[in-house]
Amino acid sequence: VEGGDYCVRTNPDGVDLNRNWDEAWQKDSAVYGQDSNPGPKPFSEPETRLIRAAVSEYDPTTFLTVHSGTLGLYMPWAYDMSHLADRNQQQMMNVLKSLDEKHCKCPFGAAGKEVGYSCPGTSLDWVYDKLKTPFSFAF
Fold first, then answer.
1. Which of 64, 66, 79, 82 can pair with 24 through a Cys bridge, CB separation 3.0 to 4.6 Å?
2. Which CATH number is associated with domain 17-138?
3. Which of 73, 114, 115, 125 is nearest to 96 (CA)?
4. Tens digits of pLDDT across the chain (139 residues)
5. Which strand ranges, in their side-by-side order, compose the sheet holding 62-65?
6. Which sequence spans correspond to the domains of the chain?
7. pTM over 0.85
């Protein structure tokens, strides 16, 4: 960012921190393409371990991860293109619909389905699944 590249997907070691979470994590580069490296194993990076510790200690009722690469309002699941959130699905969809109507006019819904590709290893899915956070979003 300091050098003017505002949409960098990776940390200085070349790892995409939003594919480094232990939720449907996959090492297979064919899943991610060339622009995304999930790291050698889940939570291999100090940044993801730090965020995991902080969010686990805080135990939020709502989690929001913010991204600059695409315009959209998303909820779980990101790990594939067919599954929808199994808890609070309608409530999360209502939040996204309201935000879309008032502010965004952009795609909204289950992340994998709306972006059109699988996103395994994300914080969005990990917090929702592992911490049982009632509301998990990516904007």
1. 79
2. 3.40.630.10
3. 73
4. 566 666 677 899 999 999 999 999 998 755 555 668 999 999 999 999 999 999 999 999 999 999 877 789 999 999 998 888 889 999 999 999 999 999 989 999 999 999 998 999 999 999 999 999 999 999 9
5. 62-65, 135-138, 73-75, 108-110
6. 17-138
7. yes
